[in-house]
Amino acid sequence: MKKALAELIGTFVLVFFGCGSAVFAGDQAGMLPLGIAFAFGLAIVAMAYGIGPVSGCHVNPAVSLGAWIAGRMNTRDLGIYVVAQVIGAILGAAALYVILSGQIGAGPVTGLGQNGWGEGYQGGYGVGAAFLFEVLATFIFLVVILGSTHKLAPTGFAGLAIGLTLTAIHIVGIRITGVSVNPARSLGPALLIGGQALSQLWLFIVAPFIGAALAGLLFRLGILEGKA
């Protein structure tokens, strides 16, 4: 229960601050894309040190899948983590929705920082480019996570390395897909916004899982696993 609650809170914070930076700040004060990138990255850094000692701060079903494939968590915990992460993401998106709905004189809520691709979304990249980016970005993200949390890695720096990597991924990819690398982060906003965000959700589940699985497999096979 402690791990589940930690993952729920951590994923809530990631969605609330990361997606919230896009929703509330938009392009004000240089928020696009650098500010949004740092909002996601700093949220991960904060949660890594806040809930890391409890659950390891996955806050991402793709991270949990990669850790499971790498042999670093059992199947029971994988299921518990994913359920908690999904609930946390939905609650985070719901909190944003409620706050946005309270803006005086505003119309219906149409944006919660949802991911997407195609004409009319960010840079207008096609499905192939979006899919490839999400696979590669998630693969790189998992390599950093699994490497920096290895028993041979310097202690105390994993949270910083992971947060900075997520920041860099957002700097590169916001114009492509808005950056997912996290099925839960994509699911929360898509469920509440519906429409195109929901119809395109499959990509932000499948592609991150593929990238995470590839990274986890390299560690499981010992190709990237350090030796004492």
TrEMBL record:
Gene3D superfamilies: Glycerol uptake facilitator protein. The chain crosses the membrane at residues 35-57, 78-104, 124-145, 157-181, 201-223. This is Aquaporin. GO terms for molecular function: water channel activity. Pfam families: MIP. Its main location: membrane. One of its GO terms (cellular component) is plasma membrane. It comes from the Bacteria. It is a multi-pass membrane protein. The keyword Membrane applies. Belongs to the MIP/aquaporin (TC 1.A.8) family. Signal peptide: none annotated. It is found in: Cell membrane. Keywords: Cell membrane, Membrane, Transmembrane, Transmembrane helix, Transport.
